[in-house]
Amino acid sequence: MYIVTVDADKCEGCGECADSCPGGVLEMVDGKSTVANPDECLGCETCVSVCPTGAVTLQEQ
Ligand code: SF4
Ligand code: SF4
C-alpha cells in the first residue's frame, strides 16, 4: 500500500494535488491539502509531480 503525506508548513494551498489525484485521496481543508481518503491511493505520484513546493511525499509500504 502507499502512504501519502502532506507537510502543511510547505503547502501553499494551490489545490493542484487535490485536483489531479485520480483516487480522490487529497482534499483541500482550510486552505491546505489534507489526506482525506488514504486507502484510495494508487501510488501514481501525480500529487508529488504537480506540487510546486515539495510538500507531498509518497512512500510504499
Ligand atoms: S499518488 Fe496518485 S492516487 Fe496517491 S494521492 Fe498522489 S495523486 Fe492521488
Ligand atoms: S500541490 Fe502542494 S502546495 Fe498545492 S495544495 Fe497540494 S500540497 Fe499544497
Automatic annotation (TrEMBL):
GO molecular function: 4 iron, 4 sulfur cluster binding; electron transfer activity; iron ion binding
InterPro entries: 3Fe4S_ferredoxin, 4Fe4S_Fe-S-bd, 4Fe4S_Fe_S_CS, Fe-S_Ferredoxin
The keyword Protease appears for this protein: no
Keywords: 4Fe-4S, Electron transport, Iron, Iron-sulfur, Metal-binding, Repeat, Transport
4Fe-4S ferredoxin-type domain location: 2-31, 32-61
PROSITE patterns in UniProt: 4FE4S_FER_1 (PS00198), 4FE4S_FER_2 (PS51379)
Function: Ferredoxins are iron-sulfur proteins that transfer electrons in a wide variety of metabolic reactions.
Protein name: Ferredoxin
Native source organism of the sequence: Desulfotomaculum copahuensis
